[in-house]
């Protein structure tokens, strides 16, 4: 803690990054990572709204066995839109581009990311991809599902597949640029004295995510390019008439798309480690295990893609290998959950909104992770593959995991980003509504999936036994919608009327809490020198460290 | 209406073994969720701020504890993995004496053919008690043959045969779905699997399956058959080749004749091309095509009757090479209509 | 890659080449190197997926692959390979003279690289035009009469155009990037003359492009008889 | 951290000789690849292995010397090697293609499944094959 004894008059309040330029150009041509994070926050929320509307349409459509207001074709286009917008435009960029962009330079003690202009370019490429996505919607949408399985997507679909491929291709490059930025910053721009094991777990998780991004994303870029070329030139790699193999597309697609689900969940795990530690006022239990489990997930995540293809004609010998490694990759996630639970033990727990989101995350991610066991063990996957069981599983991990982590992180760092506190009671209420609404929506889908209702089914009039579950699910989805809309209201309200906060409203540890909130454009008045361990909450250790701070500084800078 | 169904019926030997494994994994999931869930809530409430409780010497790392809660879940996981892989390998090795049934997946309909030639669409009649092997292929996109009651599913891929086997046990009518997204009417590409007593099945098979007459072949199908019987494809393949122009997508197109006159390839033009091809020869080709004009109306002797010509024209119309055209031939049947008489 | 180069090109310089977010030049150069190598790792995986598809298809259809490859002219491509090796050598020399701040040398060597770039693209154009005449470009106009199965031949040429085309696009981007770099050296822009890092990064990109061609050449043009 | 402006000094610059030697080696290796491709070593695997080793040799030369990775920090070395190692992970996919033929799948006309069988049509009768016709409609 660089607590300079306040003998001389406190320095004049530095202009925060929000006040530093109010023109449109100062926002749209900024190099400041904090402003780019705000730009991402706005665009990512817009896409979350678009995806949410599509989800609402799907849920209302499935209320009645014969459908409510959509035709076959429009229903296919709506669920494809829901898939593509939610995955490529919300889940993958959300936490890294909004919270990661804002916080990593602060947590690492740097003035900005390594390549500020590349960061801005990443936002523009993301917006270009977004506009392409909107154009696809206007021109009639795409009906191949977010997985673009050939030969339907390459030879038989006559919807806007080409434009969607261009949109996904650009969105991939936007996340590659973010990944490059994080890797260079975390490696090279740490403050003096900030060794790897003094880094917050948020930074570890984002490092692992960036490694997955730069190793995985190009593969889907090239695969979608091949589908586009196949549509135009019939080069035959995926079309069986010429001797190509449609399963090859699935291999190449899932080689990226499984690590992509880790790109979505790892940042949320980083947020949860911060929240649990900050609100139990204790260092995370087993810091090294949790840190290395992020890297383990990143590494093993590339070896397990075959569990998406057990019944797709992949040979069973390959299936056995993938099933075995899929069980290994479940272990690091289990380690993280147990370590978080152990962190709460003997802590002083403050049940504020972020903590409720964090506890909700642990519960839902646990169910999501464990239901993954059904799908990675080969026999149970035969029956459950491509049914609503899978839909429930990945919504538990994505919505119960990533979105709870994202909302928890937004609430935790909101005072740091805008210098204003949101009304905590409203926050707690919306967190509880989200938790209840979520469970009511997706728990019935496990049962309807086990009953055998396939994914992406528009009608189920021959199977009336599915309808009670769909009614529960649609009811839950409206509660969930309300739960997600409340934060928009009170967070925006807090921008103007929220209580102003000091540097560290939560009393949390971490370099980002040592600068003013909202932080100045250059993040720190004088560059910090880190002398203390990562999560120091107990009092004696803090005093003892403060006494011989000078020797530690010499030691670091000597 | 509200008879809540929690589990699909068990109608195959694999379904029983499957459910043992399924409920074992569910027990494991519920156990871990409750243990960790209760622990988290209990700790969160017990150690709340302001509560007087012993918080002394709280460790923040403990190697043995970390190893235990990594190794134990791993062992449990490997246990499930072993059990599941054993079952999976069993489902992939059909017995030698299995009854062979052939399935074709087409865009938005299942077509099953029994070995004695009985054909049925979106329905599958099976004898109970005998192992059945399905050899499946798709004619256009990837589909997936899924019978929840048998807990069996297998993707049906164009360009490759895939197989699936099971032994139906309980007679009855069960759902049949397509679970791999295959286009507009993916959700209507289902039907029923009817499991019958073996004797009943033999009798059903003997009198040619459902006495519902097999749908008469459509004009396009007949045209296709003639196109193959007369081996027209030898010269008129997918691409223009030396012997003959490709007929793919030529209907209602402008065709440039040898004498550079331009004629519209309508029905009249096609009929004349079959009956007296040398009247108008396409640019770049010679008079090599034989005429199919029959000697007389009753003795065709190699020629094509008027009705044949119409079928072939219908077939040529359905030939469209551009990928945007959906697969030609049979219009989708009124699928999904439950059979009128359902055997008990 | 154009992003990083473009980012270099128009970044206004405060006090010499050091950007505001870095402590000192070593940290900045090391950060740029790590960022560039992260980008090159991503490029390896980008081409890797195509190389994998190639290997798979060649493993599945060895004979047809051999027959289809007879249509390609390996002598012309051989000269192209030598041309790229030469340009890689020029780029390395250019980076060396940039490190020694020898402006004349940089302009000379990078000029050589630009020349080789143009020669490479010219040869590529000739090859593609040749293929177009022989109806070997996949799509409706594809009409293969060799011994291989026409479906597999269409796949071979599909992959040929996909991989060499993508490589060609990278060479074209390299041409633009080196062009901008050459002009900045010519007009003595301090961003490049003071700090050798932008030039080294363009050199790294160019060596990577040469690296891809080193693997492409034997795989497409020198297929042994199975 | 002295603001060292003449940083060329502490960054070792390779001599012209190294670059020329590397360029010469690369050219020789290229000629070797072309020569090796003409010779028929009995089985084509030998040709493939030779071609690939020469290509990998050339690649390491370019990376180590031209890209100055041998002189740069461990981190850059890690990323330089890591990219290619990850590329090798792709080849797990080959286990699937290699072991597909171990599961015999009977075809429509009774024969083992081939990669591109003829499409059976709704009108085709299982078991006996209509006269040979080209695939597709």
Low-confidence stretches of chain A: 1-9
- In angstroms, what separates the terminal alpha carbons of chain B? 22 Å
What's the total helix number of chain B? Answer: 6
Q: What would CATH call the class of chain A?
A: Mainly Alpha
Query: Roughly how many Å apart are the termini of chain A?
Result: 19 Å
As a whole number of angstroms, the C-alpha radius of gyration of chain A is 24 Å
In terms of quaternary structure, the protein is heterotetramer
Strand order of the largest sheet of chain B: 3-2-1-5-8
Domains of chain A (count): 1
Q: What does the main sheet of chain A amount to?
A: 2 strands, antiparallel
**Which homologous superfamily in CATH is the superfamily of chain A?**
Cytochrome c oxidase-like, subunit I domain
Reading the helices and strands of chain B in chain order gives HHEEEEEEEEEEHHEEHH
- Large-scale geometry of chain A: globular
Percent helix range of chain A: 55-70%
CATH class type of the largest domain in chain B:
Mainly Beta
Q: Please tell me the CATH architecture of the largest domain in chain B by its name.
A: Sandwich
| CATH-assigned fold name of the largest domain in chain B | Immunoglobulin-like
Counted beta strands of chain A: 2
Note the topology:
The complex is a heterotetramer of chains A (558), B (344), C (226) and D (137).
Chain B: H1 13-46, H2 63-91, E1 99-106, E2 109-114, E3 119-121, E4 123-127, E5 132-138, E6 143-147, E7 152-156, E8 162-166, E9 172-178, E10 191-196, H3 198-206, H4 219-229, E11 254-256, E12 262-264, H5 267-275, H6 306-318
Parallel strand pairs in B: 1-5, 4-10
Antiparallel strand pairs in B: 1-2, 2-3, 5-8, 6-7, 6-9, 9-10, 11-12
Helix pairs in contact in B: 1-2, 4-6
Chain C: H1 2-9, H2 25-60, H3 62-69, H4 74-99, H5 103-133, H6 150-186, H7 190-193, H8 197-221
Chain D: H1 16-38, H2 44-66, H3 74-89, H4 93-99
In short:
The complex is a heterotetramer of chains A (558), B (344), C (226) and D (137). Chain B has helices at 13-46, 63-91, 198-206, 219-229, 267-275, 306-318, and strands at 99-106, 109-114, 119-121, 123-127, 132-138, 143-147, 152-156, 162-166, 172-178, 191-196, 254-256, 262-264.
What does this structure look like?
The complex is a heterotetramer of chains A (558), B (344), C (226) and D (137). By secondary structure, chain A is an all-alpha fold. Chain A has helices at residues 24-28, 33-61, 72-91, 94-108, 116-138, 152-156, 161-188, 201-233, 246-280, 287-300, 316-344, 353-376, 378-384, 388-418, 424-451, 467-497, 539-547, 549-557, and strands spanning 420-421, 499-500. Chain A has a two-stranded antiparallel ribbon. The longest helix of chain A has 35 residues, at 246-280. The radius of gyration of chain A is 24 Å and the shape is globular. Chain B is an alpha+beta fold and 344 residues long. Chain B has 2 domains: 9-40 and 75-214, Cupredoxins -  blue copper proteins (Immunoglobulin-like), CATH 2.60.40; 219-318, Cytochrome Bc1 Complex, Chain D, domain 2 (Orthogonal Bundle). In chain B, helix 1 packs antiparallel against helix 2 (63-91) and helix 4 (219-229) crosses helix 6. The longest helix of chain B has 34 residues, at 13-46. By secondary structure, chain C is mostly helical. Chain C has one domain (24-221): Up-down Bundle (Four Helix Bundle (Hemerythrin (Met), subunit A)), CATH 1.20.120. The longest helix of chain C has 37 residues, at 150-186. Chain D has 137 residues and is mostly helical. Chain D folds into 2 domains: 16-72; 90-130, no CATH class. Helix content of chain D is 50%, strand content 0%. Chain D has helices at residues 16-38, 44-66, 74-89, 93-99. The relative contact order of chain D is 0.06.
